[in-house]
Amino acid sequence: MVSKVVMPKLGATMEKGTIVKWLAPVGDYVESGDPIAEIQTDKITLEIEAEASGVLLKTLYDEGSEVTVQEVIAYIGQEDEKIIEKCEDHITEETTIEGNLFFKDKIRRTPAARKLARIYQINLENVPGTGRMGMIKKSDVENYLANNKKTSPLSDTVHLKEPHLVSSPGPDQSGNKPIPISAEVVDDQRMKLTGIRKVVADRMTQSMQIPQVTLMSEVDMTNCVELRKNLLPIIEKTNGFRLSYNDILIKIVAHTIRRYPTLNASLQNDEIVCHSSVNIGFAVDTPAGLVVPVVKNAQKLGLVSITETCNQLIRLAREGNLKYEQMREGTLTISNLGKYEIDEFTPIINPPEAAILGVGRIRPKPVVINEEIKIKSTMKLSLTFDHRIVDGAPAAAFLSALKETLECPYQLFM
């Protein structure tokens, strides 16, 4: 039986979605759960998974097309099945897929297997398939990798094939991953603004329409450093994860912000909504671009739970497997550049949230205390807030309270 693939509705306000990329070509066999298309909403880019196993018989739209939600965009069925479908925007379709037409002289593999093989530069002709009719599955590629270990997905291949290419030492100015450069003069490289990069661009453009103000403060992190040092082996022994400063920040922000409801708020249709839950988003750099997973109800979580949640979300983000539900309903975002040589910066609000907290690196610094100079671990915070929702005084009060708690984190246990 032919199954329809429809443009999903991912939220009450979503009316259309854009097909960014087809992840499986027509004629490919896909298993239920395999990603078949990448779509972009007004908020995120995510993958549509096949809800049934079978051959991708037909796609109705080209990449880049904008499609109304719940509209059919593709069909999945058996190799020789006919598609008879009437759509409002399409003439009657009657297409026959001849048996084995698409598999003649072609390696049978699932999209997930193809994606993994592409990442690790694996020739699928060398991978034995264990699926139906010799179909190569993701697990087959994983088994092949386990038995033929490579040190790096791309580096060996790139250096062998393109010995004149070297990698640039860090991210380019747009925040993208290092781009191979050559000692020789090369043509300009152009990258179409699509996927997560386009979502980020649209959201940041939208954000710049907001009247926003940034306050900055320097924090003595000496006690936090000591707290992390003491708790790190305990938490690692409990769940195997290393406690990070970001985890501590999420805990302390969630604890502090409850006294300042307009900072844990959003602007929705001319209404300021002060949220009952504290859902902290935190920016994660991934191979595909910046994403912001959300720790829900952070005000109820201890450091062990926060550490587990953050590590799981980071892993999913970097594997490209974050779900839409794991990135929505954030009420405040933390952007931490502390692992770089960055002391302070001006973060941009993630709409419709009321504020975002920028975090710089922790570093030792001479500080005057009671007319004596002492070396302290210091860190700078930048709080950018939407001045339509929050005035300067409550924003300053929140940042001061946050600084006070970070400088004396043991009050969390009172």
TrEMBL record:
Gene3D superfamilies: 2.40.50.100, Chloramphenicol acetyltransferase-like domain, E3-binding domain. Its cofactor is (R)-lipoate. Keywords: Acyltransferase, Lipoyl, Transferase. Its EC number is 2.3.1.-. Residues 2-77 form the Lipoyl-binding domain. It is an enzyme of class 2 (transferase). GO terms for cellular component: cytoplasm. One of its GO terms (molecular function) is lipoic acid binding. Residues 108-145 form the Peripheral subunit-binding (PSBD) domain. Pfam families: 2-oxoacid_dh, Biotin_lipoyl, E3_binding. CDD domains: lipoyl_domain. SUPFAM superfamilies: CoA-dependent acyltransferases, Peripheral subunit-binding domain of 2-oxo acid dehydrogenase complex, Single hybrid motif. InterPro entries: 2-oxoA_DH_lipoyl-BS (IPR003016), 2-oxoacid_DH_actylTfrase (IPR001078), 2-oxoacid_DH_E2_comp (IPR050743), Biotin_lipoyl (IPR000089), CAT-like_dom_sf (IPR023213), E3-bd_dom_sf (IPR036625), PSBD (IPR004167), Single_hybrid_motif (IPR011053). Belongs to the 2-oxoacid dehydrogenase family. This is Dihydrolipoamide acetyltransferase component of pyruvate dehydrogenase complex. The lineage of its organism: Bacteria, Bacillati, Bacillota, Bacilli, Bacillales.
